[in-house]
Amino acid sequence: xxxxxxxxxxxFTAETDxxxxxxxxxxxxxWAILFSHPKDFTPVCTTEFGAVxxxxxxxxxxxxxxxxxxxxxxxxxRKWKGDISAYAGVExxxxxxxxxxxxxxxxxxxxxxxxxxxxxRTPAHSATVRSVFIIGPDKQLKLSMTYPMTxxxxxxxxxxxxxxxxxxxxxxxxxxxWVPGEDxxxxxxxxxxxxxxKFGEFETIFPYLRKTKAPV
Length: 216
What we know:
Distance between the termini: 37 Å
């Protein structure tokens, strides 16, 4: 059974380039994003982790911890961090999980149970380890996205999705292409009377589509 939205994500203990962590304890009361990569020292992944490093202030603003996972060892991660930091022009301060036994990749359903890393492997052997998992403080999976190896991730969209998830935790939904500052949607399960009491003024476009100012 694959990992689905609103499932509690697997807890695990793993080595990272910054020491051992217990995943749920590491998340604590924060939001968390797990970025997965099929191998260290790969071109697209280096640019992506560089983007993660450059967004350190944005993650902090949103009370969000970020962590990587790659199916190489902690010592290789530490060496790779040099390239990532050099490319990004800033220090890559986030940890990267050493998943050389594939335990985390399999727990998050990125690889089948029978997967293994052969001698002389290439990134193609772990190609599906190219996912993003956004996890709430309740340790539940809120959103996942999986990319092929040839397409770099859009971090503006990851930030936008995180903003939308944090907004929706206030009892609203967000429309297509929503960005912070725009109106939000009142869920159909909320009556007009309750909507007025909770949100004040709102616009009724259709009986099932009502918009209001985003709650603070």
